[in-house]
Known about the structure:
There is one protein chain. The chain has 343 residues and is of the alpha+beta class. It has 3 domains: 2-140 and 319-337, Nucleotidyltransferase, domain 5; 155-184 and 261-315, Nucleotidyltransferase, domain 5; 186-256, Actin, Chain A, domain 4 (Alpha-Beta Complex), CATH 3.90.640.10. The protein has helices at 2-9, 53-56, 80-94, 115-127, 138-145, 186-201, 207-217, 248-254, 256-271, 275-284, 298-306, 319-328, 331-337; strands spanning 13-17, 21-26, 30-36, 39-42, 48-51, 66-69, 72-73, 76-77, 104-109, 132-137, 156-161, 166-172, 175-182, 203-204, 228-235, 241-247, 286-289, 310-312. It has a 5-stranded mixed sheet, sandwiched between helices. Strands 13-12-11-17-18 form a 5-stranded mixed sheet, with helices on both faces. It has a 3-stranded antiparallel sheet with strand order 5-4-6. The longest helix has 16 residues, at 186-201. The chain is flat and about 65 Å long. The two termini are 18 Å apart. The relative contact order is 0.15.
Amino acid sequence: MFGNIFDFFSNDIGIDLGTANSAVYVRDRGIVLREPSVVAIQTGTKRVLAVGEEAKRMLGRTPGNITAIRPMKDGVIADFEITEAMLRYFIRKVQNRHMMVRPRIIISVPSGITEVEKRAVKDSATHAGAREVYLIEEPMAAAIGVGLPVQEPAGNMIVDIGGGTTEVALISLAGIVFSRSVRVGGDELDEALIQYMKRVYNLMIGERTAEHIKISIGSAYPMPDETNIEVKGRDLVAGLPKTLTLTSEEIRESMQDPVATIVDAIRFTLERCPPELSADLVDCGIVMAGGGALLRGIDKLIAEQTGLPVHIADDPLSAVVEGTGMVLRELKFLRKVASSDRY
């Protein structure tokens, strides 16, 4: 009886706690928040000054007394206290003020994380105000979010390229048959671009500039209309601001290594695929989700390397958080696919 009363008074929440961006889904309301996973704190203390979009604008531009940090690294918690503060901010922002009961929360986590890392996520969410905490593996959440028939006895393959990790998973009968998690994602593409600029042009650019270049003209496969972009940064030799023009071919070359790592993870998963499920994949192919799926031509590259049809989700950025929201509505299914130990 008390469980039903709790359900009536609380908002169930699904959180895609990402390395680059976090999104929150509230049951019966849909996706209500999507903000960068960045927290600005007072230097030398743990006092939080800003979270999300406001904090991201401070990245690389803060005075000495403010530090803008990203508490998630490679899909897992790098700073426990700051992650807790960020979660508390998200929960308070989406909760109705009159809610008397703490929410039940489901959080997506990379499939390759350790038990210690899982415990850190659960502890953070509990301290931030959760009544119960469930964990669901990101590829499972993404597969549900894009509408794959995960409960059927057929092979479904999902590739979720996030900010810090790439999750490749083969799913059948509401379970993960085989998965491969590599700590390479959008951040590594940005970092490869930063290092290329240093090595080739002696030009120092920041994280936000690298991300802007990647989104503007980045690609994984030769494009019919190659283009170029103006890049501003600091000359490492003269120490002065400098502007360069870069071509899309150069950008593609700079990101070659992390893209190759993602393709290798997909091939490795396909090699471990049982024959019956391999036959299913010939027909239905691979579905891509996550921000990295928006990189131009990545579907063509993967299709060329694997010989399978590749489909990009209609809204790749929302796939994981949509999946957590759909699972929230089916509590029996939630207990089946989510981590069994909870608070």
